[in-house]
Amino acid sequence: MATKLPKVPVVIVGMGWVGGIIAAELSKAGIQVVGLERGKGRGTQDYFHVHDELRYAARYELMQDLSKETVTFRNTYKMRALPMRTYGSFLLGDGLGGAGVHWNGQYYRFLPYDFEIYSKTVERYGKKKIPEGMTIRDWGITYDQLEPYYVMYEQMSGISGEKTTPPNVGAMSKPFATVPMKKTPGMKLFEEAATKLGYHPYVIPSANLTEVYKNPDGIERAACQYCGYCERFGCEYGAKADPVVTVLPVAQASGKFELRTHSNVTSILHNGSKATGVTYINTPTGEEYIQPADVVILAGYVFTNVRLLLMSKLGKPYNPDTETGAVGRNYAYQVNGASTSAFYEDREFNLAMGAGALGSSLDDFNGDNFDHSDLKFLHGANIRFTQTGLRPIQYQPVPAGAPKWGAEFKKATIHNANRILSVTGQGASMPNRYHFLDLDPEYKDALGQPLLRMTFDFEEQDRELVKFIAQKTKEIADGMSATKVEMHDALKQYNIVPYQSTHNTGGTIMGSDPKTSVVNNYLQMWDAENVFICGASNFAHNSGYNPTATVGAFAYRAAEGVKTYLKKGGPLV
User: Fold this and answer.
1) Whole-prediction pTM value?
2) Vertex 14: Cα angle to 9 and 19 (nearest 5)
3) Could you tell me which of 352, 52, 395, 60 has the C-alpha nearest to residue 228?
4) For residues 322 and 471, is the Cβ–Cβ distance under 8 A?
5) Cα(292)–Cα(178) distance, rounded to whole angstroms?
6) Is the torsion defined by CA of 154, 224, 231, 181 positive or negative?
7) Which residues of the chain have pLDDT under 70?
8) Which residue among the candidates 102, 270, 503, 541 is catalytic per the annotation?
9) What is the pLDDT of residues 333-366, one digit of tens each?
10) Is residue 503 annotated as part of the catalytic site, yes or no?
């Protein structure tokens, strides 16, 4: 029988970026908060021996155990879904800080176009430009409304970047907190080639600190050492902004925050119109607890947020046949595959050194920054060259036609290890009527609860986008003084392998219509006013960017909404 605990004002499910930001903001305001994290606790001391590629990058030390909980996948809703048994397409973080610990730190605000994509598309091209089955919609918030919350995240985490607003993006009311990262020879080649073509490259804004920085909360952190161990690793210097070294210490110092690790939330308790608390299991002991609360905040990863709502029967599940319901709607991913490799026979680069967000990029072909009138796709891609640190176990580059095994393969990988620069496009993912998340009717987790099922495939929109962006990457690579270049412009059927991106979005989307969205623009649930859901699950589509900046901005806005709700109650407008 579950043990019922004393009621608290706020309980937060998941202690990554979203949970950490909201916990810090609420506790600073004197509000008592309980944070539930299903994984273990951690701090920078746990990263002192983190430069182990086999343990962390290849064997996924910081990731969720798929033998206990995974997702099932299918391309169409008429197929039988099968579980993801080993990691491939994306990585699910586990433990305190979540995916905010193992991210690269690449920081991009979404475009003004993203938040009003339906209205702006119809205004410029007409309704016929939107293909049948594409379910783009305005988000119920504008860039200008969200802009102050981007600033909050940037000042808290010490985002580095150029002093002026990057070209082709939304206006910034305040410069980035620290100076840009250093430019490598590869970045200079990319920027010179792009500039000659009339494009507008800039150094990627980065959550890897470029100098010692003290944020508005008094948290001081050291500068990046360019060691190349960011993605899939924690940062032992604390130079990469993550929740464990930024917002969680602030919450813990407030005296108003209680963190409970190894606490796996299994359901949201509710009476049909309001939540009353959550049920969770202490994983080491198997004991079950009920935590009553005035406000429940879902701050987990995309799949966690959606799955908890569906398992708790809170909100109406999406039905692709009738296009009714909202929970699980508009799942979107990231459209990669457009790239060009530049090979150098007479020059080597130190590609083992780098940082997760070290690089340069441009947005001339992102969003609606270019004319789509004669193109068979909407939106676009951020085109970039990055130097994130290419480690020897997983990086084995060879040109097309080279042997794939044996002595000649080894010889080719050694020769090319520091001779290949890649210009890539990270494309936006538009939602489709038949791309959604629901509960799998067959497969269950270690606790006997249904797994989340993903239904997704690439569409003609995505293939056309990749072909177009690949040509642009080749134009730039052609100007980078390489010996030869190889363009990649084919996008096949989506598969759960190999690794592509951990930028999963949608499922609890925001909007202004309760029939087709789950939350309003304060991330307050339409169907239960004391439930706030925050994260990339709120995105009605995915942009040509990494999602963390917008997730962080939403978290600050949600925290503001929760404070208002605790004072006044009722729906927030």
Assistant:
1) 0.97
2) 65
3) 352
4) no
5) 42
6) positive
7) none
8) 503
9) 999 999 999 999 999 999 999 999 999 999 999 9
10) yes
The token duo for 37 is 């994290």
* Percent helix, percent strand, percent coil in the chain, to nearest 5: 25, 25, 50
- Phi, psi torsion values for 394, nearest 5 degrees: -95, -10
Q: Which residues of 537-559 are buried (b: 16+ CB within 10 A; e: fewer)?
A: bbbbbbbbbbbbbbbbbbbbbbb
| Nearest Cα residue to 219 out of 157, 127, 147, 308 | 157
Contact 477/485 with Cβ under 8 angstroms?
yes
pLDDT at residue 233, as a whole number:
96
d(CA 445, CA 434) in angstroms, rounded, equals 25
What is the dihedral sign for C-alpha 259, 260, 265, 269?
negative
Return the beta strands (E) in 186-235 as ranges.
Answer: 202-203, 213-214, 220-221
Give the model confidence (pLDDT) of 459-488 as tens digits.
999 999 999 999 999 999 999 999 999 999
Q: What angle do CA 405, 408, 413 make, to 5 degrees?
A: 80
Of the options 3.40.50.720, 3.10.180.10, 3.40.50.2020, 3.50.50.60, the CATH number for the domain spanning 3-568: 3.50.50.60
What is the token pair recorded at 4? 């019922």
Q: What pLDDT sits at residue 161?
A: 97
Using H for helix, E for strand and C for coil, what is the string for 494-551? CCCCCCCCCCCECCCCECCCCCCCCECCCCEECCCCCEEECCHHHCCCECCCCCHHHH
